[in-house]
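Possible regression after last week's pipeline update?

I re-ran a chain I had predicted before the update to compare outputs. Posting the input and the new output here so someone can diff against the archived version. Not blocking, just want to make sure nothing changed silently.
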Amino acid sequence: MNILLTGASGQLGQELLPQLQKLGPVSQVDRAIVPGSGETIKQDLGDLNQVEIFLNRTSPDIIVNAAAFTAVDLAEDDNVTAFRINAELPACLARWSERNDCLLLHYSTDYVFSGEANCPYKEQDETWPLNTYGDSKRAGEWAIAASKCRHIILRTSWVYSGIGNNFLLTMLRLARERPSLSIVSDQTGCPTWARNLAEVSRKVISRLSTDGPASRLQGIYHYCDGDAVSWYDFAHEIFSIATRIGLIEKVPEMTAVQSSDFPQIAERPLYSVLDMAKIRKDFGIEPAGLHQALQSCLEEMAENE
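New output (post-update):
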């Protein structure tokens, strides 16, 4: 299988590469070069004409689209770029995939939901984004579904890793800089290690490749690691493990605050926990636990320091 990975330099893209290489040769594309990972096609993915050109040149059997505009607040001011990357690019990939009988694996977000539910969201639940980022990701989902290409859309949440820009790295930096922190406690979601999401992606692709084009398994699936917590609780878990293994010297004093006390440009859903019964049933995939995943990520970071 020839695989094309977009967004190869991102936190998910860098975890996906070694997983996808277990399945076949991988062509990487991004506007940034990924150090030490082989040749990367350097390309602005917002230039859709060039996207068509490298698709025709690489002629993949599978496209894994990890490219995304994920700056939630910035998307409010730059909605053109957010929709170009999160909606128009997936639409372009889907049209090409439909014409060329290619499987498309795409990633979406818990932020397509309003956060007003009181139980985990199922794949078929109504979407109602509160911000431009969520709106653009929903538009990408719709475009892929409208194309009729073979596809899987994995909705996930609160992705973190030891690279890039994410809540985990921000908390570690602030813990080294400040004696006390105020952290939002009324938003609940499921923190997900990028490596676990990458491993799930490999399992999904492997199953679909075995089943072949006639597989009934397609559409939207939810995957995130298995424990629902607030940002405050997540930070507490980060600091607890990080002090124990020596990544930070001490736990900063923590104050729980409400979202209204910590205004941001873009509104966030207060509850965005995803139900994973469907991916369990269809793929036999069980979510990883938060504590073990976070500990593995932090221990690897400590080893690499």
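Follow-up from reviewer: compared with the archived run. The first strand starts at residue 3 and ends at 6. Marking as no regression found.
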